[in-house]
Design goal:
- The protein is an alpha+beta fold.
- It folds into 2 domains: 3-46, no CATH class; 56-265, Chloramphenicol acetyltransferase-like domain (Chloramphenicol Acetyltransferase), CATH 3.30.559.
- It has helices at residues 17-25, 49-62, 77-87, 97-111, 155-170, 244-259; strands at residues 67-75, 117-120, 123-126, 132-134, 136-138, 141-143, 146-147, 184-188, 207-221, 224-238.
- A hairpin with a 2-residue loop joins β2 (117-120) and β3 (123-126).
């Protein structure tokens, strides 16, 4: 084993036994944070291979790509209730809110193929199949496994397959073909109580959807003032591929599907 290829997780970045054993099993050990000695002002933690790749790729993703952003607030009351009803069914896979978003995006992308597109030299490549990148946070960085032909999957299939991808991503058991080929991506930080954020597009994709948390907020309806569940969606778009109106129409359809969630079951 070539030790120059290993990332040490011991004190000061030293290679220790667990790093060698992890490399033998194909899993990368996360750098261990050593308690700072008294009086030490700072510590330089070596980049893990994943973090080094992210640091190299992000400027290439953000700087050359002219991003613009479209945000919409979605009423999630009915989607929340539907999810709870589905999860009470015996023998059926558990549905997450992210599964509902994935299904809504897959259906909306079929109606708006211009968002399911990427810049390829002097042409815009429009995809008629939806290969969904689903961002998964790991201790040492972010990885985006791909759920292929997402448009042809039912909500239950999306729930099962996306959970399997996420679990194998955390266990470092993804196959190479599951890490490339996405035509659109979703990044969800709702579980961290994030109201809203803007995600960086993953080239060569033309767009990525950032999903915030579902919050209980005061809302005004025809019946008066009440409490509702609201979620912010922010679409990051490559302005070379699409314009604001195209992104807005896509986001309107995603919003409609989530606010009328029975459409996600047909």
């Amino acid at each position: 084993m070539d030790l120059r290829l290993l990332q040490g997780s011991g004190p000061g970045g030293r290679i220790v036994r667990r790093d060698v054993e992890a490399a033998r099993t194909g899993a990368a050990a996360a750098p261990a944070l050593v308690p700072a000695a008294p009086g030490v002002e700072f510590e330089d933690v070596p980049l893990s291979p994943m973090r080094a790749a992210i640091a190299k790729r992000m400027p290439l993703a953000k700087a050359p790509v002219p991003h613009f952003y479209v945000t919409s607030e979605v009423a999630m009351d009915r989607a929340w209730e539907l999810r709870e009803e589905l999860n009470r069914l015996e023998g059926q896979p558990k549905i997450s809110l992210n599964d509902l978003v994935v299904r809504a995006c897959a259906l909306a992308l079929l109606r708006h193929p211009g968002v399911n597109a990427s810049l390829q030299g002097e042409a815009i490549r429009v995809f008629h199949r939806v290969h969904m990148g689903i961002a998964v946070a790991l201790d040492e960085g972010l990885i985006t496994p791909v759920l292929r032909d997402c448009h042809a999957r039912s909500l239950a299939q999306i729930a099962v397959e996306s959970r399997d991808l996420a679990e194998r991503a955390r266990a470092r058991k993804l196959r190479a073909q599951e890490l490339s080929g996405a035509t659109f991506s979703i990044s969800n930080l709702g579980m961290y109580d994030v109201a809203e954020f803007s995600a960086i597009i993953n080239p060569p994709e033309g767009a990525i959807l950032a999903v915030g948390s579902v919050r209980q907020v005061p809302v005004v309806t025809d019946a008066g003032l009440g409490v509702g569940r609201r979620m912010a969606l922010t679409l990051s778009c490559d302005h070379r591929v699409m314009d604001g109106a195209m992104g807005a129409r896509f986001l309107q359809d995603v919003k409609r599907l989530l606010e009328e969630p029975l459409r996600l079951l047909v």
